[in-house]
């Protein structure tokens, strides 16, 4: 899927520590590449998002704890490959933390279940899995992008975030300023793709929490949401409950991101309680996982949630840090939640595993 010039440009940017973004919109095949060799990773002011044009990134966080970064289209892939840049190397963005063992994961999920009260409380607990591999980052992106044509596929680097690559099925917000309308989706509730039984009560309640949150957030932002019929969305070996939501009039992107991110699909509900449970149980830095990624133009914005993604630390070999989470409710079963994270990571582990050099366990 990636043209040779884009693959080469990605390699140049990684060696030269040049901020770049490469992405493909859902159901499209055109690969967009932009780079900004003048960007030093300084966070964007929240209010400046409404005037920003380029590739927008935010970290995971509640309230004002999120950080925003932006890569402007200063250089094309052709310009990058035709130029000469010194090799700088990309350092680790955070300290190395041991992967979440299965025993620790099951213990933490049981603890979170005990802390939740009633059917409408939820916390999204994630775990990390690290693989070291000889597979080049651009090669991994090429395979992953090809395998998930209905997703927003992305790869980017900034000095503040490091390298991330993913294929997200979850639209946070699409804003069309010309038509004065917006669209989003509630994506929550997960099961194996071959499960043909009725959706469980746990999954339906988990999904309802997200639908209600998004509807209320859009209303509070000054728009009028319309909630459509719930269906399903497939990703690899899992499928999710999915509800399209439209709204008008369009409101500012900065207000939308502040109100919508993170949704209960990535944090939980109530937000503050869920965030507290996450911070007290997860032993690693989510960084950009659960944040947002997307394109901004004068005509509108297409913003997705950063998930089904991997952080890449380049080297010999490369290190791939996979993160996957699940919504924990009072009706959760710890073993089933573990299997859900295995299934969510499977598309990436299937790509990286043939090339891996070290890994405690592939799941």
Give the helices and strands, then pairings:
Layout: H1 4-16, E1 20-24, E2 32-35, E3 54-58, E4 68-71, H2 77-82, H3 102-115, E5 122-133, H4 137-147, E6 152-158, E7 162-168, E8 171-176, E9 181-192, H5 201-220, E10 224-227, E11 231-235, E12 238-248, H6 253-260, E13 268-269, H7 271-281, E14 292-296, E15 300-305, E16 309-313, E17 318-328, H8 334-352, E18 356-358
In round numbers, the mean pLDDT is: 95
Q: What's the N-to-C terminus distance?
A: 27 Å
Radius of gyration: 19 Å
Q: Strand percentage, roughly?
A: 25-35%
Overall body shape: globular
What is the string of helix and strand elements? HEEEEHHEHEEEEHEEEHEHEEEEHE
Estimated helix fraction: 25-40%
- Secondary structure: number of strands: 18
Taking pLDDT < 50 over at least 5 consecutive residues as the criterion, the unreliable ranges are: none
Structural class: alpha+beta
State the major sheet.
Answer: 9 strands, antiparallel
- The total count of helices amounts to 8
Describe this structure in words.
The relative contact order is 0.20. The chain contains 8 helices and 18 strands. Strand 11 and strand 12 form a beta hairpin. Strands 1, 2, 5, 6, 7, 13, 16, 17 and 18 form a 9-stranded antiparallel sheet that branches. Strands 3, 4, 8, 9, 10, 11, 12, 14 and 15 form a 9-stranded antiparallel sheet that branches. The chain is an alpha+beta fold and 363 residues long. The longest helix has 20 residues, at 201-220. It starts with a helix and ends in a 5-residue tail after the last strand.
